[in-house]
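Lab notebook, entry 377. We have the chain sequence and a SMILES string for pyridoxal-5'-phosphate, and the next step in the workflow is to get a structural model of the bound complex before anyone spends time on docking refinements. Request logged below.

Task: model protein plus pyridoxal-5'-phosphate, output structure tokens.
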Amino acid sequence: MIHFLNLQELNRLYLDEIQDAVSQVISSGYYIGGPVNERFETALSSYLGVPHVVGVSNGLDALTLIFLAYIELGRLRPGDEVIVPANTYVASLLAVSRAGLVPVPVEPARDTLNLDSTLIEDAVTGRTRAIMPVHLYGRTCWDATLVDTVRRHNLLVVEDNAQGLGSISTVPGLDGVSCHTGSLGDAAALSFYPTKNLGALGDAGAVATRDALLASTVRAIANYGSDRRYHNIFRGLNCRLDPIQAAVLSVKLPFLDRDNDRRRAIAARYRDRLSNSDISLAMPDDLSTTNFHQLVALSPDRDALRRHLDLRGIGTDIHYAVPPHRQPCYAAELSRYSLPVTDYLADHVVSLPIAPYLTDAEVDTVIDSLNNFILPR
Ligand SMILES: *Cc1c(COP(=O)(O)O)cnc(C)c1O
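Result returned:
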């Protein structure tokens, strides 16, 4: 049996250190905020090369807080349009909507499955103020066309880096030097949902930015809108990072690059050994530009392929079977958009096992089963 993803297996390697770190939090008495959170924020800040990191409750809250902070700072106004990829997890759009902004979906490119940068220009209207590149499946969504369009229209760039931690861009970020996804735009949201490449043992997230004022505004909004004790400058929320999760993440962060390298090696094995012309793998030539959060394959009969693998004890998943514009909650707002590439992907993608703990032999078992697949006629 090869599970799509086994979370116990994923954390087994770090179990002793995690248990020690959690015990230390328990005996420290700091159950909200405190030095363990600061240590994690500092470590993540130096990993990303971004001066300000604010630990928060989860990835959706991280995105929402960024937009709410820009509104408090007068950089965005309710009703402003935000360009979002049509092919993404629904949370990307939920954050935009929750902040009172309007998501405008743009189709992915068929080869990258990510936002097609050549289509951004046409989606810009007089009310467009921001864009959200999503490094979906971990694949860097950043190129010269995107940067050029963003500059010409003076758009704020909020990266959804929930899936991309550890991916690298060959085109520098807005500051002209940054290369890590999560450091390329004006602000970035990260998620440490347990299945992400850096996963907590529960919900956790972070905001990263070079903008000190944005960071302090996010921190205040996430803490009841309070800038110091019993002094509330915003009508805020409670979206703080749990120090137990911060402790877990501090244990795992040093191993993130090693895990991502293992994912890349597994992906290269799939690429080199797959010989079935009815299955194609979506991956970039330069493997450093993705952390392989997901390894996505496409097949004319995705469901038959999933059944074939399932019969052989191989787990798969779909990211995502129902795109945001097809969700009931967005039916009224987004059904007027025609998004055929996104619809096509929803029916044809399948995510294959790529967890870093997989052995070469296990990966070969999956590849053999892929190669044995015969498309039903
Ligand atoms: C996981 C994810 C989120 C939300 O993160 P949570 O921590 O689960 O709230 C947002 N966007 C994308 C692309 C994600 O994959």
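Notes for the group: The pocket of pyridoxal-5'-phosphate is lined by residues 58-60, 88-89, 91-92, 134, 160, 162-163, 191, 193, 203, 205 (CB under 6 Å). Worth checking against the assay data. The chain has a mean pLDDT of 98.
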